[in-house]
């Protein structure tokens, strides 16, 4: 019997002929080395563009409101000039499908470009690493600081770093909530310490998520939590552009003097400096081949090019290339010719069709919506004046940001008479019920017996009770198809909704 080593404090005694297999092994912390180069510069360009958009757009105004606002309380999405209602879910669905297909297309062409340059996890990890570097120093200094015992210097630097991290994360959470609650009102509430419980919760929740993911979990999110890393292989083929190591040129690897020729001691171009591993944000060795942990950021290509420059060797030992290009020793022109292959053409055609359809639908979209529901409690009845009556509930939603007037007309059955009156007016979808007895003089004037015109305020909706009448005996018993025609007087646009008029036996 002997004692086997364990990662836990307690030691376990096991028989000599048994082997302990650890089901969990904690990974060492990764200290990415700073790097500069073409791909690093592009990564920072994308960081600046995405963050300027994210932090800046909520403060833009369109008219007298926030330009981009997803107002869940009022059940409206404001996207610059466009106002969408929950009934416009089809547009959100189309946008999600287009986003998914775009990801498939870009992945088929150039691998994980999204992950390496624009994914929020990558972007915020880079920002947090930049803050860490400014406060604690470069890679060697950070490693030395973590290995040292606790001291006033270490405590002050760690405290300063985490203070900046938390402040930036809370600012991120505040901005994110500002897309769903008007950000100026949100800022005013924060300054006056009057933030509501839900706003407080979500600001802290997204702030904590940013702090945890970008400050601590980092590559763990990409390696173990992100599903994209798992199914990316289904979208890759031998003509997908990926970060690759030219094994034929680089092997066998080995150290040497700068003055040594490339073929000294029958060695390849790789001097085995391990800098490509040190700069990798996920800690992999690209020389071992393509791995699912690789996010395609190109940091290893940048640092390898600097080493090749110092050694006087040709650049491109680590580069963006395809498997076919490496195997067949293709030129750049031959490699890029393979971009327009069947998979890419199919993705592009479907994507173009969806985008065209979405834009056309938005362009020809009627700026108001009408929903009509029969009063199921009253299938058909005789009114006090001896007429046969059917009752309908109509909701008119004004999708513009100007007051509109709508005229109601009904066709399809001879002798139809309309009696339309307000029953409910929705202002910000608060659904305030207005009974006939409590109708204001303004509302009474809006509906007259001749043209049945109703006013709806900007981006609001209005409920109208529509009673349709025909003389008793004027129509055969059964279901008769009718059409409601609602005309926007200002824009001259119309919406037609089908329904039925029931004549009981």
Automatic annotation (TrEMBL):
One Pfam entry name: Fer4_18
Top-level taxon: Bacteria
Molecular function terms, GO-annotated: 4 iron, 4 sulfur cluster binding; metal ion binding
Domain 4Fe-4S ferredoxin-type: 258-289, 293-316
Residue ranges, compositional bias (Basic and acidic residues): 427-439
Any single Gene Ontology cellular-component annotation: plasma membrane
Region Disordered, residue ranges: 427-452
Transmembrane spans: 42-60, 89-110, 163-180, 200-217, 344-364
Keyword annotations of the record: 4Fe-4S, Electron transport, Iron, Iron-sulfur, Membrane, Metal-binding, Transmembrane, Transmembrane helix, Transport
Keyword Membrane on entry: yes
PANTHER family: FERREDOXIN-TYPE PROTEIN NAPH
NCBIfam families reported in the protein's UniProt record: ccoG_rdxA_fixG
Name of the protein: Cytochrome c oxidase accessory protein CcoG
């Amino acid at each position: 019997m002997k004692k086997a080593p364990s990662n836990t404090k307690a030691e376990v005694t096991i028989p000599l002929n048994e082997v302990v297999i650890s089901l969990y092994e904690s990974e060492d912390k990764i200290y990415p080395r700073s790097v500069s180069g073409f791909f690093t510069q592009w990564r920072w360009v994308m960081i600046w563009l995405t963050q300027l958009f994210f932090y800046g757009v909520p403060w833009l105004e369109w008219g007298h409101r926030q330009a981009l606002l997803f107002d869940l309380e009022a059940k409206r999405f404001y996207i610059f000039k466009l106002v969408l209602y929950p009934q416009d879910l089809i547009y959100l669905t189309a946008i999600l499908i287009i986003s998914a297909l775009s990801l498939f297309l870009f992945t088929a062409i150039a691998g994980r470009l999204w992950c390496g340059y624009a994914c929020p996890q990558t972007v915020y990890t880079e920002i947090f690493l930049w803050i860490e570097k400014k406060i604690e120093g470069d890679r060697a200094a950070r490693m030395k600081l973590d290995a040292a015992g606790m001291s006033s210097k270490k405590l002050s630097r760690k405290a300063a770093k985490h203070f900046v991290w938390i402040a930036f994360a809370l600012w991120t959470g505040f901005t994110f909530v500002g897309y769903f609650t008007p950000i100026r009102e949100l800022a005013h509430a924060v300054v006056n310490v009057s933030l509501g419980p839900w706003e407080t919760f979500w600001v802290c929740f997204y702030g904590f998520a940013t702090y945890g993911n970008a400050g601590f979990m980092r590559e763990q999110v990409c390696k173990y939590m992100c599903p994209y890393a798992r199914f990316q292989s289904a979208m890759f083929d031998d003509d997908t552009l990926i970060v690759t190591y030219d094994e034929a040129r680089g092997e066998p690897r080995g150290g040497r003097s700068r003055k040594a020729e490339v073929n000294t001691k029958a060695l390849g171009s790789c001097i085995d400096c391990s800098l490509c591993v040190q700069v990798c944000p996920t800690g992999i060795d690209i020389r071992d081949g393509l791995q699912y942990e690789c996010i395609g950021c190109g940091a290893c290509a940048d640092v390898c090019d600097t080493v090749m420059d110092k050694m006087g060797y040709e650049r491109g030992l680590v580069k963006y290339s395809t498997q076919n290009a490496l195997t067949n020793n293709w030129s750049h022109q031959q490699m890029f010719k393979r971009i327009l292959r069947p998979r890419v053409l199919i993705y592009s055609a479907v994507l173009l069709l969806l985008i065209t359809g979405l834009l056309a639908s938005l362009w020809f979209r009627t700026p108001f919506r009408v929903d009509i529901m029969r009063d199921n409690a009253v299938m058909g009845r005789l009114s006090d004046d001896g007429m046969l009556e059917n009752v309908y509930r109509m909701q008119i939603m004004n999708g513009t940001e100007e007051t509109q007037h709508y005229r109601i007309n009904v066709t399809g059955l001879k002798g139809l008479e309309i009696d339309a009156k307000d029953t409910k007016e929705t202002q910000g979808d608060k659904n305030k019920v207005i009974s006939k007895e409590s109708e204001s003089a303004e509302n009474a004037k809006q509906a007259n017996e001749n043209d049945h015109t109703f006013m709806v305020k900007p981006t609001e909706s209005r409920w109208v009770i529509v009673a349709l009448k025909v003389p008793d005996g004027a129509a055969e018993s059964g279901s008769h198809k009718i059409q409601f025609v609602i005309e926007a007087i200002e824009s001259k646009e119309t919406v037609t909704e089908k329904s039925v008029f029931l004549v009981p036996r």
